[in-house]
Amino acid sequence: QVQLVESGGGSVQSGGSLRLSCAASGYTTSILCMGWFRHALGKEREWVAAIDSDGSTSYADSVKGRLTISQEDISQDNATNTLNQRMSNLKPEDKDKYYCAAGWSRGCGRETRWYNYWGQGNQVTVSS
After folding, report:
1. What H or E segment, with its residue span, contains residue 2?
2. Contact in structure between 101 and 115 (CB atoms under 8 Å)
3. Which residue has the higher pLDDT, 36 or 128?
4. What is the DSSP letter of 43?
5. Looking at the predicted structure, is the pLDDT value of residue 21 above 50?
6. What is the DSSP string of 72-101?
7. How far apart are CA 107 and CA 32, in angstroms?
8. Which of these, 4, 22, 13, lies nearest to 94 by C-alpha position?
9. What is the mean pLDDT of the chain?
10. Which residues pair with 28 in a beta bridge?
11. How many CA atoms are closer than 13 Å to the CA of 45, on its beta-carbon side?
12. What is the pLDDT of residue 102?
């Protein structure tokens, strides 16, 4: 099993920046990709970005150029690792609950069916 816990987020003014982190623990050697999704009430879940075990990244057009994701192994035995997201030039439409996800397959990309574990989500609010 793998547990995902998000942190960071919060409130920021339009044009500002913030950072989200996702700590993965448990059987993390099974994880070959990680990603971020966002979801607001009344809207469909939207894929934001993903990173593969080889370090390759992909971004949704809506955030490309404004968001950067990175992954770090914070323990030598790979028992835990952390997915980071830094978003700049935030817009009111970026206001959402952001979810971290992890999958067993490489190239998870934008489809939720390739992700096997999900975090509880962390709220981001952008004021104009």
Report:
1. strand 2-8
2. yes
3. 36
4. S
5. yes
6. EE-STTSSEEEEEEEE-S--GGG-EEEEEE
7. 8
8. 13
9. 88
10. none
11. 15
12. 93
With tokens 């489809």, the residue in question is 111
Q: Rg of the chain's alpha carbons, rounded to an integer?
A: 14
Residues 6+ apart with CB under 8 A from 56: none
Residues belonging to the chain: 128
Measured distance between the N- and C-terminal CA atoms of the chain, rounded to whole angstroms: 40
Q: What proportion of the chain, given as a percentage, has pLDDT over 70?
A: 94
* Type of residue numbered 86: R
Nearest to 124 by CA among 81, 92, 83, 82: 92
| pLDDT tens figures, 70-120 | 877 644 445 567 888 888 899 999 999 999 999 988 888 899 999 999 999
Short-list 35, 34, 67, 36, CA closest to 53: 34
Instruction: Find all residues with CB under 8 Å of 45, minimum gap 6, and list them.
Output: 37, 38, 39, 99, 112
